Amino acid sequence: MPNYKPVIETIGVGQTALDVAYEIGDEVSLSYPVGTYDANTETYSPQGTTNSSSYEKDRYYTIPSSTYRQTWKLPTKVEETPCSTNTNLEFYVSEYSDAADRIVYLNDDLQQSLNAEYTGCCFDENGNFVAEPSLNQKRVTDIILEGIEIDKYGKINTDSGIVYLNGCSNVSMDTIIRTETFTVTFNSMVPNIGSSAPYLDDDVTVTFERSDGSSVTATSSTGTLSMSATAPQTITIKFGGKFGRKLFPEETWEYYYEKNSGFIPNPDHLNYEIDFNERKPDPNERFEPYRINKDNNSGSIVDLSLEIPNDSILFGYGGDITNRSAGTNPIDGSTSRAGHRDIVFNFSVTSTISAFPATTVWAIGTPLSTGSYCTNGSNTYYVEFGGTPSSGTPGTPGDPLATPPVPPTSGTPADSGPSGTGFFIDESGMRYRYIPPTGLITTAGAGDFSTTLYAMNDYAGSQKIFEDRLDTNSTRREK
After folding, report:
1. Residues near 364 by Cβ (< 8 Å), separated by ≥ 6?
2. Which residues pair with 404 in a beta bridge?
3. Which residues are 183's β-sheet partners?
4. Which of 42, 175, 302, 403 is 20 to 30 A from 284, alpha carbon to alpha carbon?
5. CB of 172 within 8 A of CB of 209?
6. Rounded to the nearest 10 degrees, how much is the dihedral formed by the CA atoms of 78, 84, 90, 96?
7. C-alpha dihedral (237, 439, 353, 5), degrees to nearest 10
8. Within a 13 Å sphere around the CA of 370, how many CA atoms are in the beta-carbon half?
9. Taking the model in full, what pTM does it have?
């Protein structure tokens, strides 16, 4: 399975910079035996297990179990790593503030940062005006998938590197013997705007960029999108363009014509009566009003303002006020209100890792060469020093009456075969290193994942259309 590389956004510069990490996938705990064989003592010393790094960017993450929600947060606590010294200060963010949605406004470039660049309104999930943060966060983050490589001891590595620590010493990768080929497919955007997969909004794009420079882009008219890569290659998923007004289809537009003008109405537009004060003239005697809503065109999602006849007079406009559940704010009721919605981008991934080398079932008398692999029980081992497993030799009773007397011998014990999850030295001197299950995978975690954006309707686009139409209608209204 490719590594779902955490999104890292840096606050500050130099030695005071802090990495704010957003974990896209689910972390996989990786541990491997580590030690050096000492021929004098015939033991491995020191013998231990590699530990995970304190930095998210140095770890391995598999496919997320839930959607990766695009949020922002701030560091609230920083700690030194166990390996930090006065001459080599190392620290990491250990606690964050509660995550808040990265608000995506209609008609805003998805590649903008959050540095207060939005020119319209800014609201929190309770509808209160707020300033955007100015900490170099992107409005929508990229997603990077890294192909994995596996060395001869079963350690997993990626293009950006997985860090293994033995105490405070890095454990380096050995010879790479296996590589992954993975394919990522962009399947759909929800809600569906386009009429066919991937159902993108008119101006939204999803681009796959491979580390060799190749790229492909999905739009509302291209169909679904796929790209493959072989480790150590990576694929970066980028979101571009902007969301349009079709994302909030519950608008209402009203226009009218003078009676007996010869106008032939769209049969999907509702002819209704204008409310009026009975003490004043009835406007319905002079005008034919019509109403447009999303039920037009058999309910397909369209820009309703485009259906207003050019020679009509615009009478009214109502924005999308549908209550929807969206957002991450834990305050009761704040995630269900009008003017916003969650946008979900759905992907799928397949993964194939080249086959593990042939293994030999451990058995007395079956030769095992140095550098080969064997199995004993349910475990797999790398043969660090080979030979032929021995059944041992029997002891002899000796003959005390012989001249000279023959002493007894104890014989040699039989090999038992490797066991445990570290290093193993058998009676004959053959040596083995345990290969953890993560080093044996041929495919892992292939499946579906998604990322969720929080989109806000600021009504600015529709309001401008309304105002422009009123301006063009002004001469006619003054007659």
Report:
1. 389, 390, 391, 414, 415
2. none
3. 228, 350
4. 302
5. no
6. -20
7. 0
8. 5
9. 0.86
